[in-house]
Sequence to fold (192 residues):
Amino acid sequence: MKKTAATRVFEAARDLFYHRGIRAVGVDEIVCKAGVTKPSLYRAFASKDDLIAACLEESGRESRVALQATLEKVGEDPRAQIRAVVRHFASKVAAPDFRGCAMSNTAVEIPEPGHPGRTVLENCKADLRATIVNITRQLDIARPEELADGLLLIIEGGMAAHHIFGSQGPCMAMVATSDALVDAHLGAKIEV
Fold:
């Protein structure tokens, strides 16, 4: 099936943004890789910022679907769900083509509040935190939000550490570290 110009622009931009960085890639490079003209790009996307947001929306949607599928496989046990979430991200970090989290990479490149891409990534990260909080609230622990934040730090830290150490560095400790954190919260006395 022949792809539309908009689809080719979207796919080219998404690949370039992820592998080279949003700020490093210009509209000229996107249209060249897509094999279209600038007017074709601007008919599909009002601006580069709108294209960035569209690419991030799709990355976020794919991530949510993949994480939900992972959770469905392990059933209702919150401890198993936590382990599955961390394993899910640890396996992403271990993939040979991993170049960091698209959302976190964008957060570094686009610090401006209100930028369409920034809004998408903040919502995506808030959704991930909410998913983890919903799981940790099912455990019999005193501070489920604190545990969720600790797990999020492990996940985000693993993805960030990959940039420096690769998949064989500290990232390899993501699951063991999260297990220890969960054990510490389960072992703590419930506060009254």
User: Anything to note?
Assistant: The chain has a mean pLDDT of 94.
